[in-house]
Amino acid sequence: MKILLHTCCGPCTIYPTDVLRNEGFDVMGFFYRNNIHPYTECLKRQVTLQDYADRIELKVIVQEGYDLEGFIRNVVYRESDRCRHCYHDRLRTTALMAKRGKFDYFTSTLLYSKFQKHDIIRSLGESVGNSIGVPFYYQDFREGWKEGVDRSKQLGMYRQQYCGCIYSEKERFFRSSDRKHP
């Protein structure tokens, strides 16, 4: 059984890949880039993922291009619901890639993060899978959160401090600078 794993970064790929392989899946990664800002951050995540993938012999497809403008156009004036759009776009793109590659399933490392909205991810994944014709494989990978974090630190991987979008970067840094400079 072939499964396409949407991967957001190297550290979040560790635990889900292990679990899926242990369950007998032939796993391939797909790195989606449009939601990761700035571009230098996108490149850091991509290099870290590729280094890890090479180490564990995981093939990874890297999304071509970098459509920052398209991402922003789709969330502008909808910033409070931006995660839903971002999830949908990443899952839809992954499902389309899975269909083209004749995968049996697709899934996402988003399901590993304790910071993501699992109910929304699952609902969107199942809906997208039904409409495209490739089943979404849901598994709650959060139980391996600490294990993945520890392993990524042992491997000296680059570990980002925000989800990827420019809005989450602003929230992270603006809040911390706000506290330091009243």
Task: Outline the structure in words.
Strand 1 (2-7), helix 1 (11-22) and strand 2 form a beta-alpha-beta unit. Helix 1 packs across helix 6 and helix 4 (82-100) runs parallel beside helix 5 (118-132). Helices cover 53% and strands 10% of the residues. It is of the alpha/beta class and 182 residues long. The longest helix is centred in the middle third of the chain and has 19 residues, at 82-100. The chain has helices spanning 11-22, 39-56, 68-75, 82-100, 118-132, 145-154, 166-180, and strands at 2-7, 26-31, 60-62, 105-108. It has one domain: Rossmann fold, CATH 3.40.50. It is globular and about 45 Å long. Strands 3-2-1-4 form a 4-stranded parallel sheet, sandwiched between helices.
> Could you name the CATH homologous superfamily?
HUPs
Mean pLDDT: 94
Give the structural class.
alpha/beta
Assign a percent range to the helix content: 40-55%
Coarse shape: globular
Low-confidence stretches: none
- Please give the largest β-sheet: 4 strands, parallel
Distance between the termini: 55 Å
Tally the helices: what do you get? 7
Q: How many strands appear in the DSSP assignment?
A: 4
How many distinct domains?
1
| Beta-strand content | 5-15%
Q: Could you please say which CATH topology applies here? A: Rossmann fold
Arrangement of strands in the largest sheet: 3-2-1-4
Give the radius of gyration.
16 Å
CATH architecture: 3-Layer(aba) Sandwich
Helix/strand order, N-terminal first: EHEHEHHEHHH
CATH class: Alpha Beta
